[in-house]
From TrEMBL:
One of its GO terms (molecular function) is transferase activity. It comes from Micromonospora taraxaci. The keyword Transferase applies. Residues 70-90, 237-264 are annotated as: Disordered. InterPro entries: Class_I_gatase-like, Peptidase_C26, PuuD-like. GO terms for cellular component: cytosol. This is Putative glutamine amidotransferase. It comes from the Bacteria. The keyword Lipid metabolism does not apply. Residues 77-90 have a biased composition (Basic and acidic residues).
Amino acid sequence: MRRPLIGISAYVEPAGWAVWRDVPAVLLPEAYARAVTAAGGRAVVLPPDDVDGDVVAVLDGLLLAGGADVGPGRYGQRPDPRTEDRPDRDAGELTVLAAALAAEMPVLGVCRGMQLLAVAYGGTLHQHLPDVVGHDAHRPAPGVYGSHPVRFAPGSLAATVLAGVDRVNSYHHQAVADPGRLWVTGWAEDGVVEAVEDPALPFVLGVQWHPENEPDPLPITALVRAAGRLVDSGCDARRPRAVASPVGGSTDGQGLSGDRQSTG
């Protein structure tokens, strides 16, 4: 059987190589692609593109990567001076995410990607987490990862995928405030949301940390395996289905509502 194709949303940032400096570039930390390859998948880099989500027709899974902040206008807030957003990424990722959800495709959100999932399901974010928790442990210094304990709701997808994990890395200054129609299934010791999921779909998971930079990137491995099961079975996972549309849209009447949020 062929390797499952995993689309990974890419950054657009100024970059330099050889004689070129500050050139706008589509880029992605290699750790994401390495983790997908190690799990048996084929990484496909997705530049921001909000024309349509038709790329989903050739993918088997979607990984929403980390990066800059989600635009506060997407969840009805004014921007904090410390918020640095990327409107092109928001638009492109929400477009492909909507198509992936409609196709019941396996989806994993990492850091920013988890926050984008929450916004797509009608949730909101804390724009500057230290104002809420009173410390900088989730992003100790520029380019320096923190580390903290984590716990997961028993019986959840997060608990299954992350069995045995009780500590994760950390590099973020924003966090999920309201998960919208998602369930919260993971928490840091200070109450910060560390995992969200949609139990109405086969595999929709968000994690607040960066598993691609850990020795055993379990969430990414689980995403690839979920996509691989569909490939091996010959199932068409891309049939349309009415689900939550980007940024607080409606559902198909199957009871997806805020009261599904687990409690700590």
